[in-house]
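Re: that chain you flagged

S.,

Sorry for the slow reply, it's been a week of failed gels. I finally had a moment to sit down with the sequence you sent. For the record, here it is as I used it:
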Amino acid sequence: MARGLAVKRGEGFGEQGAYLMRDWSVEATLPKAADIETLAAESPPGTPVYLSALAKNHGGGMIADAAAVRNAGLDPVPHIAVRNYESAAELEIVLKRFRSEADVRTALVIAGDRDRPAGPFESALSLIASGLLEGCGIEAVGVSGYPDGHPRIDEDRLEEALAAKIEAAGKAGLGLHVVTQFCFDAEAIGDWLRAIHAGYPGLPVRIGLAGPAGAATLLKFALRCGVKASARGLRRNFSAMGGLMGEATPDRIVDAMAAMPLDAWEEDAALHFFSFGGIGCTAKWAREKAQRDRNDLDD
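Prediction finished late last night. Pasting the structure tokens below so you have them in one place:
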């Protein structure tokens, strides 16, 4: 289970806005030393930092980044893009180094962007079921979720894949949580989350949102990642989010989710921010938003 996601309502959070911001995480791609220093200054100790996997940076570079994040007092969660690895032996070496050099205990397991795998692992499920993760000291895994749908995979196949991953993780003794693709539609997120928790009560979920960034930047990433329905929604709401030339923040989406009935969230939902506009900027916004919501609760 991801750190902190089992915290229950009523244990100091009260209102939904403060509850949602209690245990946020952030995603970083190739963080520099200054980025990690800023993250440590702006984030609570132990904040999960998910490290994106790139085709040319899935080994030593990611291990060094994870170690730097750990040394800064944060919790590194590397992406393991299984199709990038040419052999089980190669991946085993990387996993063992993650554990020994950065004390990595949780990894986000994804297929990766390759159309064809470089080695024996075709999917996240194939690695989860292999026994390699727990054999290398990994204790928990994150897997992907799609409130906005997937551009190439239909809903039935997504549901079957999630069920299979949950079953395989259970057999392996691995904790499992879902980290969703970013979405700009609070209602779609709420509907998806209710459906997930109806099928899997108590399943920990991190809801992906885009951190502060220019609206044009968000559109670019939305289209690149196949978040087409959300991209259309973002276009329709440029004026509410700062306009095409302005900066868009997730305040409105978080506030809209906070206004939903409590049963939309269950006790195991938290927020996960993609740092398209910069790692430090995203962490600073999240800290300030969490503080504002706590202050509102105290008023």
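What I noticed first: The chain has twelve helices and ten strands.

Talk soon,
D.
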